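Reviewer 2 asked us to include a model.

Predict the structure of this chain.
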Amino acid sequence: MDLGQLFFLPEWDDKFLRLNNEEGEEWKTNKAIQIAETLYNKWRDVFHLSIAFAESLPEDEEQGFTQKLIIENLMVVAPKIMSAAGDTLYIIKMENAAIIRVNCIQLMEQIGVSVLMGLADEKHEKVIKDEMQNFRLLFKEWVATFEKDDCEDEWGLF
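Predicted model (C-alpha cells):
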C-alpha cells in the first residue's frame, strides 16, 4: 500500500459553508466555525503523524490490516468535522461528534497495540498521543458551541 498518496489532507475550505449562508459575511466570525477550522487544522497534524506511524509498520499481511484500520479511522474524521461545522441540526452535529470520538479512540487503540506488539516506536506513539490530547481539548470546546434545537431525535440518543 502506498501510504504516501494519503499523506495529503486538504486545508480547511469554507466554500460549502458559504452555500448555506449566502447573506453577507457574518457567518465567518461565528465562534463555532472558527473553532471547527482550528479543530480541523489540528486534525491535519494528527493525520500526518499517524500516516507516518502507519508507514513505519512492517509490511506484512497482518500489519497491512492494521495500517488499513488506522487509515480508515483517519479518513473519517475530517469530513465529519466539515459536516458538523455547517448550518445543520443539533442531532446531526452530535452524531458527527460521536463518530469522530469513536474513530479517535479506535485510532489510538490501534497505535497502542502496534507499540505493545513491538512493531512501532513508543516515542512516535507519545507524539501522536500529545497531538490527540490537543485535538480532544479543542473538540470539547467545539462541541460546547452546539446549540440544541427543537428537532426531536427519533432514536432518543441526542
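Residues 13 and 37 are 9 Å apart (CA to CA). The chain has five helices and no strands. We have added this to the supplementary material.
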